[in-house]
Structures are given as structure tokens and as C-alpha cells.
Design goal:
Elements: H1 14-61, H2 69-79, E1 83-90, E2 93-102, E3 105-114
Helix pairs in contact: 1-2
Length: 117
């Protein structure tokens, strides 16, 4: 059994190295985009929660549901895992603002609901 000589001009094994490089690039790209996706998801969650909390407050304000309008808005916001920042009642309209964390960022969303104009 003899020793095999190393031929530096041979491309044997180059496909495996190229495959590893492509996989590494895909993983790095996915990791770079992940914070952006998390922020967009948190913004959507905050928007939906603000809409639901405003509708709950407006329903209470219009007499559909008994209780405190801002109290219901706070309960609905908590059910969506966001914090109620403010709740303001203007005549027959409720305006709410909610806030949630998205990694190191904070996402805030506002919504209003009330009687038709």
C-alpha cells in the first residue's frame, strides 16, 4: 500500500465545501432577518389589541356591556398580552393606546371606536 499524492489541481470535494458555504450564508441571512420579523409581528399584535380594546371600551360606553369603558379596555389589552398606555373617552368615542415589547424595541399602537358619525 502506497501513499497517495496530494494533487492541488484536483476539484475533488469542492461540492461539499460549496454546499457548506451556501448553507452558512442562508443561516446568517435568516438570523439577520429574524429581529425584523419579530418587530413586524409585535406591531401587528399591538394593532389588533388596540382595535379590540377600543371596541370593548366603545361597547361599554354605548351601553352594550355594563361597566367601566377603560376597565374593559385594560382587560382586553391584557388578554392580548399588551399593556394599556392610555384610555380617553371623548363624547361617544373611546381612544386607546397600547404598548408591547419587540426584543429591545417598544411598539405602540392607538385605535379609536365609538358611535357611527
Amino acid at each position: 500500500m502506497g501513499c497517495r499524492r496530494l494533487d492541488l489541481r484536483s476539484d475533488e470535494g469542492a461540492g461539499g465545501v460549496l454546499t457548506l458555504a451556501v448553507v452558512a450564508m442562508i443561516v446568517c441571512g435568516a438570523l439577520a432577518v429574524l429581529p425584523l420579523v419579530a418587530t413586524v409581528a409585535a406591531a401587528r399584535r399591538a394593532s389588533v389589541a388596540a382595535d379590540a380594546a377600543a371596541l370593548a371600551a366603545a361597547d361599554t360606553l354605548l351601553g352594550v356591556v355594563p361597566g367601566d369603558p377603560c376597565g374593559w379596555a385594560k382587560k382586553v389589552a391584557a388578554a392580548h398580552h399588551v399593556a394599556l398606555v392610555s384610555c380617553r373617552i371623548d363624547a361617544a368615542e373611546a381612544v386607546v393606546t397600547v404598548q408591547t415589547a419587540a426584543g429591545m424595541l417598544t411598539v405602540e399602537s392607538s385605535s379609536r371606536a365609538g358611535a357611527p358619525r
